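Consider the record:
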Amino acid sequence: MCNFTTGAFRHVYNFARASNARLLFDLSELAGRTCNDSQNCRGPWDTANVRLLLEYVRAEGLFEPNGTLIGFELGNEVFAPPLLLPEAVVADNRLLAAMLHDLFGGTHAAVPLHYAPATNKCGGPENAPVMDNLTNVISGWSFHTYPGGSGTQDGFPFVLNASWLRNKIMPEQMPCLHDWNAGPRQHGMDLIMTETAAVYGRAPASVPQTSSFQHGFFTLASLGQYAFTGVSLVARWQFLSINPGTPALVMKLDGIYTVAHDYYLLVLYRRLVGPGVLNTTAADPHANALVYAHCSADTRNGSVVAMAVNPTETALLVDFAGIGSATPRTEFVLTAPNGNMGSETPVLNGDTAHPLRVAPDGTLPAMDGRYVAADGPGALLLPPRSQAFVVLHAARAPACTA
């Protein structure tokens, strides 16, 4: 257990607000309980500290609908190892729901979002009954996934295999999706992933880390696949590190910021990708390029954003005819400098002289796309081992006009 003060919470809140991020804050339900080697916790939950924090949030006006702080998540991987029994998880979340309604006014719009239980055991028998018992109590169900398992031996070379990307990201989590679709989803329960990466644990220094270009193949593929299932949030592990040798999206050492390759992908995703998800089908189901499509952000004129990855060592031609008109378009094609999969400074649209790199104070570099006019080539040649966003300005997708 650690001492986390209201002042520390304010510091996290201020950081999120300054970076235009949304904050979902995790709460512990182990206080007051007796745990045997972090397992089999017994006794009632002492909610005093949680209530103190919620009262602070209310008094300081830190929660506003659609503001920086969107809500709270209760618990962290409580089913594996077996920290809590399912009935305790249900009871704890009912307690928290009552506190939120008591402190924030009782109307649905004024109450912070409430997620649980951050399970890493979607295949366990606990999920369906707990999910059913918390339907109409919590805002949504949260889960964690590391589909490649531990990366401490050889990292995650499998993300350079299109078949693995297509077939191995989702299976572990299908039971959670099944349980959610069996009823809770129809009653308004949300489903979010609050922790993910290709692997957990630090890879050997001799291979790419999760902060590297190589990890981007997993990131784009997982964003595309989970969006299509209805999962509304995917949170990359981990966001910030101040410890040398601990890869994270944002790293701050000796006052100087650096960022992981995935950070640039997520910035482009946030800028370009809208909420509408389109169904894409490859002409060859075993194709080595993976493509996902969304409505574009901030416009309803039918334009589409395609996300594509080519994990192979061969250039691949991607034809967007099935999505809509391929030109005019704007391309954001990322490659690793000199083919170095371990790099954290990707090359955008072939500009090898200026790989992407944040300033020491964290300021982002320019990330402008490459415009292809209406009379330009209809297909995109994806370089070997590349990741791309492509805005199809004249796609005229009906789903993206309403």
